[in-house]
Amino acid sequence: MDNFTFYAPTYFDFGRGAEAHVAELVRRFGGSRVLLHYGGGSIKKSGLYDRVKSVLSEAGLFAAELGGVKPNPRSGLVYEGIELCRKENIDFILAVGGGSTIDSSKAIAAGSLYDGDFLDFYHGKAKIERALPIGTILTIAAAGSEGSPNTVITDEATLLKKGTKSDVLRPKFSILNPELTCTLPAYQTAAGATDMIAHVCERYFSNTEETEITDRLCEAVMKTVIYEAPRAIREPDNYEARANLMWAGMLAHNNSCGVGRVQDWASHHIEHELSALYDVTHGAGLAVIMPKWMRYVLEINPDKCVLFATRVWDIPLNEENPRETALAGIEAFEAFLREIGMPSSFAEIGARAEDIPLMADKLLGGRKTEGNYVKLKRDDVIKIYENAL
Ligand code: NZQ
Ligand code: ZN
Predict the structure, then answer these.
(1) Averaged pLDDT in 10-residue chunks for the chain of 389 residues
(2) What are phi and psi of 316, to 5 degrees?
(3) Ligand 2: distance of its center to the CA of 124 in Å?
């Protein structure tokens, strides 16, 4: 195991009705003038918007609001949010929604206290040192942004989808009420589950040795998602399935599963080019890419693929032919993704073969390789995309 630091100071309030505590939590973390940031309307339909507004106003908290965050959040709305925060003297951002709303809030939080263009942070031209505090009320178990220091934004001018991170972006609190996720369409539930497994795999597929504790945590999270996602899809109101998925999504990405080793992240970066170009749901893009990435790296570096098969998918080890074991694991993963209704090819997500060279170039952006479990060159990335056609 490598040396590491671990800093994850978010306060979690988990359970039924937890959103009733939002005003108290905003105050506890120093907020008095709040920007309420949300997405395309699911929170209005579910009644959550009205509940949150009334809790804030009963507590005497000022609340400006900015809705309209789209999945794969865009730079345009972030600029609007920054302007609004400055105009209204906002001192706390409350994100009510999923990863997209939380990531947009993080961008506004950092951008409001920065003199230059907030996209500098995403293009590697500046480091985030300060940000307004943020809190979240999560409505979809997926991206893990509720407990992560990360944010991903699409620059509308260049269609580059870029991430950045800073410990100051970690939410001060996150309210996790599994009931709020019962209104999710099956497709979003499935895409969220896929994203969770991908977050774990990006950490699990590592060449760092002797990481038993994090490997076992990874396996526990993946097995839970594999059990609970089909249950939540069959029975959308199943509180326990929703609750287990919700906590799994947080654990998958707050780095508990990742510390002490070199992580990979190739599949995520390969996927981000798909969501940037075709606006595909992030988890659905991962369902197309991740198994193709696994099949590709299996031929170069099979060890972790074998462990993934035996421990996560309970495939018996074929000692004579471990490659066969690993392959059976990947096939089990593919069958699971099909069962929960995820796509497996470019055709299903409207992606085009002719864009592959462009995506590979955008992805590498001048770098020689992508990922760490296997260091992928441009040709390797192209082959992975082509295997997904
Ligand atoms: O916008 P509304 O109307 O709220 O609808 C959303 C949206 O259409 C809907 N939804 C959310 N909660 C719902 C609901 N519909 C009904 N009932 C509910 N309770 O679901 C759709 C997807 O929402 P979104 O926020 O986009 O989903 P997710 O949480 O999967 O976030 C995806 C974004 O997060 C980024 C992705 O790249 C993508 O842009 N990621 C962020 C990470 C991070 N910050 O740490 C890590 C991830 O790897 C990921 O890259
Ligand atoms: Zn992800």
Answers:
(1) 97 98 98 98 97 98 98 97 98 98 98 98 97 98 98 94 96 98 98 98 98 98 98 98 98 98 98 95 98 98 98 98 98 98 98 98 96 98 98
(2) -65, 140
(3) 20
